[in-house]
Automatic annotation (TrEMBL):
Its main location: membrane. Keywords: Cell membrane, Membrane, Transmembrane, Transmembrane helix, Transport. The chain crosses the membrane at residues 16-39, 54-72, 84-106, 142-160, 172-192, 204-225, 231-250, 300-323, 330-353, 359-383, 395-417, 433-451. It is found in: Cell membrane. It is a multi-pass membrane protein. GO terms for molecular function: transmembrane transporter activity. It holds the Pfam family MFS_1. GO terms for cellular component: plasma membrane. This is Putative MFS family arabinose efflux permease. It comes from the Bacteria. Residues 17-456 form the Major facilitator superfamily (MFS) profile domain.
Length: 463
């Protein structure tokens, strides 16, 4: 089914539209990590266990990542603007419940609902952002802003959560999200044009959506308990693999697949999604381990740990801006290569001198710049598709990014605990092995980007 043709807004209106839609993504992606720095206080308030900590930390990501493909279909079915507004309302209600949670279970449940609401908003926001662009140049610039906001959001969650917890209480995080949701709804209603009439509606492909959601959720939860011992993680990850195979079989046979065959065959989509996965697997994983290490081993307060990560968030914007300028002379593949190399270099510097505060700031600054550049390259590459499959492509690339956050964080935490001790324990060694592994992955991806310079990606413009 073709996306409906939408009248092009004027330049000022397009800017407002871009701001509104990127704000939707910023809030939704930020909430993946917003509880990390506040997690010790949350668990302590409920007199909770390690299992409670895992449940609270992963509930949002599991439902967000698991429902993104389904969320893309919801937008196609009911209209993208309606999907965003309904999602914001549900997100706000869940935030209020989280703020008043009497137990870890209720808090995790509210976070799960928030994640599901976010999954129905983000693909629609990206589809509208791309569809409203009057030409390829305007679309590329909008994608650059989108990429910068998403990359900055994931890192900003650590800082925002830490700062609010230091100022008042972890519940302030969720009361703030209620207010932000109200403001966001006003902005979206004002800036985003009404949905046009839809002559036909695609089926939901319920079984495909169910198996896709189950596969991602099982993967996220299985990865999050890898370091806890026992067979639970193995069982969950095997179940995830089986469910993934079922989804692929079901979706291929569906008359309305969530991932159309034409989309799955596109090299740009596969490569853009792979890079989105590596972006978050390396940077979010390193940031999580660093946050725990600073608070546990080095005695930083939540606010101090948040301030240390601020350069990472700020420099993402600089990196995304630089990506557009460099692309004009070097091309898309070169932008992706440079971005990944900067991520690898920043992580390597961090692994070398993690006890020196200035070095940590320099390392996170370099990582942030690289993340901004690589995010623009990956998103633009993945969305270089026909309008007919752009909504599905947006769901796929965002799913890859969320899986990267979950699996990358789990893998680095496991490596840290195995070789250097739990990073949040006083006196633990710096998790150098984990960070070196992340640097190696980023370096390998940079090398693969270099091979794209002679492929069909050459000449592709990002901004």
């Amino acid at each position: 089914m073709h996306e409906p043709v939408i009248a092009q807004p004027q330049r000022a209106a397009r800017r407002a539209l871009t701001l509104a839609l990127c704000s939707v993504q910023f809030v939704d992606v930020m909430c993946v990590t917003v509880v990390v720095t506040a997690l010790p206080d949350m668990v302590a308030d409920f007199d909770g266990s390690a299992a409670d900590s895992t449940m609270i930390a992963t509930a949002y990501a599991a439902f967000f990542g698991g429902l993104l493909l389904f969320g893309a279909r919801v937008g196609q079915r009911i209209g993208h603007r309606r999907s965003i507004l309904a999602s914001i309302a549900l997100f706000a209600i869940a935030a209020a419940i989280a703020a008043m949670s009497p137990s870890a279970l209720v808090l995790a449940g509210a976070r799960a609902v928030q994640g599901g609401a976010a999954a129905c908003a983000v693909p629609s926001a990206l589809t509208l952002l791309s569809t409203h662009a009057p030409d390829e140049h305007a679309r590329a610039k909008a994608v650059a802003v989108w990429s910068a906001s998403g990359a900055a959001a994931g890192i900003s969650g650590y800082a925002v959560g830490g700062a609010l917890t230091q100022i008042g209480d972890w519940r302030l995080i969720f009361w703030s999200l209620v207010l932000v949701s109200a403001l966001l709804a006003v902005v979206v209603r004002a800036a985003v044009p009404a949905d046009p009439p839809q002559p036909t509606r695609q089926p939901f492909n319920a079984f495909g959506a169910l198996t896709a959601t189950g596969a991602v959720m099982l993967t996220v939860v299985g990865a999050s308990v890898v370091g806890e011992g026992g067979y639970r993680s193995v069982v969950l990850l095997i179940a995830a693999a089986v469910t993934t195979a079922i989804f692929i079989s079901v979706d291929r046979r569906s008359a309305s697949p969530l991932i159309p065959a034409a989309l799955a065959r596109l090299r740009t989509v596969r490569w853009g999604s792979t890079t989105a996965f590596v972006n978050t697997a390396t940077t979010s994983g390193v940031a999580t381990v660093l946050t725990l290490h600073l608070q546990g081993a080095q005695g930083y307060s939540p606010a101090a740990a948040a301030v240390t990560l601020l350069p990472l968030s700020v420099m993402v914007i600089f990196g995304a801006t630089a990506a557009g300028r460099l692309d004009r002379s070097l091309g898309a593949a070169a932008v992706g290569t440079i971005g990944m190399m900067l991520i690898a270099f920043g992580i390597a510097v961090l692994a070398g001198w993690p006890e020196v505060g200035l070095v940590v700031v320099i390392a996170t600054t370099v990582m942030g710049c690289g993340l901004g550049m690589s995010s623009v390259a990956s998103t633009a590459t993945a969305l270089s598709v026909p309008d007919t499959v752009r909504a599905a492509a947006s769901g796929l690339v965002n799913t890859a990014a969320q899986l990267g956050t979950a699996l990358g964080t789990a893998a680095l935490l496991l490596l840290a605990a195995s070789f250097d001790g739990e990073p949040n324990v006083a006196g633990a060694s710096a998790p150098r092995i984990a960070w070196v592994a992340a640097a190696v992955l980023a370096t390998a991806t940079a090398a693969m980007w270099m091979t794209q310079r002679g492929s069909s990606h050459r000449g592709q413009r990002l901004a």
